Amino acid sequence: MASKPIQPLVLDSIGIYGLNRQSSAASLPPQFLTTANNIMLDEKGRVTTREGIKQVTDNVHTGSLDTDGNPTANTLKVKSLGEYRSATGATTLFAGAGANLYKINVANTPYTLDAQTFGGSATTKTDGNWQFTNFNNQFYGVQSGNKPVNYDGTTWKDLEDVGSYAAPAGVTNFTPSCVLGEFGRLWTGNIGENKDVVYYSDLLIGHKFQGGSAGAIDLKGVWSGDEIISINGFMGKLVIFGKNNIVIFNGPWDVNFTSTASTFGLDEIIEGVGCVARDSIQLVGDDIVFLSSSGVRSLGRTMQQDKMPLTDLSLAVKDEIRTHTVTADLTRVKAQYDLSTGTYILSFGGKNIVYIFDFKASTPDGSPRITTWNFDSKKNPGALLSTDDFLYVGLGDTTYFGKVATYSGFYDVEKKDVTASFGTSSACTTAGHTWESNTSKCYQDIDNTYQADFKTTWLDFEQPGISKFLKRFLAIWSGGKNMNVTLNWFRDYNVNPTSANFTLDPTTGGVNYLWGQGKYGNAKYATAFQPTEYKVSMSKAAKVVRLQIIQTVKGFKASLQNISIWAKQGKIR
Description:
mainly beta
């Protein structure tokens, strides 16, 4: 009898739905992944490596440094990042850390974190966990247990030191934990003594909470025993998030209870669903995404479904999100919607895991695709900010406190203070490092590699009862120069894999300039990496196979185009 031919088992849609750790790996289709660390999914669903976290500032600290330039004591975490926008459109970045605010001075290289001086009789700040908002060409910040702060484009002050300041009537300690600058007013909530009252300012006067058209919204008669977590604007409505309820008001431009013509009024109460983390709330297109006690949800879907069973955007990782929500410090939960990647980024402080919800495409149930990022523990994100140019990350969880990075390149870059060895500008630059003249310090860039890996479901290639003699693994990658790859394959639900290693070595190419010929030579555009096929010999037989691919990112992006396994059909068993 003639032997059966070797046939390709093609996986051209591997992982296009992203991560699913909620269902059994044996029951999921091959479009899902069961591990998806430090990867992204492009618009075509191809698995690519995430970009690097590149330190761009010096560090905020008091006390001594170790030999690597990291603080050894009295370190300060960057817990908040904000962008002030002036009337002219100019922007300034600020970071909150410890008892101070710091300007991210982009005029220096690396950027410096310049401590800000407060005018007036400023009070001591107890933490750096601010929520910022722009309003009427002013910049405001609030956090629990602290007095609000104001920046007018030149000077920081406690809000109470701004001229003509007026605290809300009957309030002895005005320390709101959340703020919104919208609809012509400054809205604040949860001042400690009154956790369920919203105080709003006079029209276009953010420091005046008494007199004029300033006032308050007491939610005691709207919900029962809840507290305000955040205040947001959505589709022309005022949205107040409690821990267990969401209250929505119409007509926030016309909040005036003394006028019979006022259009302000209660629109909807969503009971049983609230937000547990102030900084998890983000505008995503025409929706708001937030972390509830039962998972990541969207306000649009919640409003549509009201008291019916709700769709959970984090359904594919529901149990672990709930576990993090119970065990994490919710004041350290941070989120950001990154316009450049179309993703909602959710970080649980202290957990060293970041969930990426990709809204560019969805899974069959309409949920966003999910992947994860993780970092060396010392780079665990403590703050996030997306601007027109970059995604900024406040770093630190153990030894890396007080530094800010951007999401760019394909190394996790840290800056090491090597002033002790290169103490002059000439010595520093001769060694190839960066001299920061403002602080008279020399910084060396350390390019750290990081690991990106993913694992498939159990693959039966629609032949669950037939044994396959595994012969060859073929995959096409774009990019990934000098990237070391480990291929693990697991057989028939066995936890011990067979492994093989190889290195991506893509073909390079370029395009001639229009005038590239002649006496100026054959010039080319920047080097481009062409899709390249890689082959790995496999062995042994299996009815079902599971693949794990581990990549060491070394400065270049790698994008997986497709995978196929060549196998010979065995017995039916």
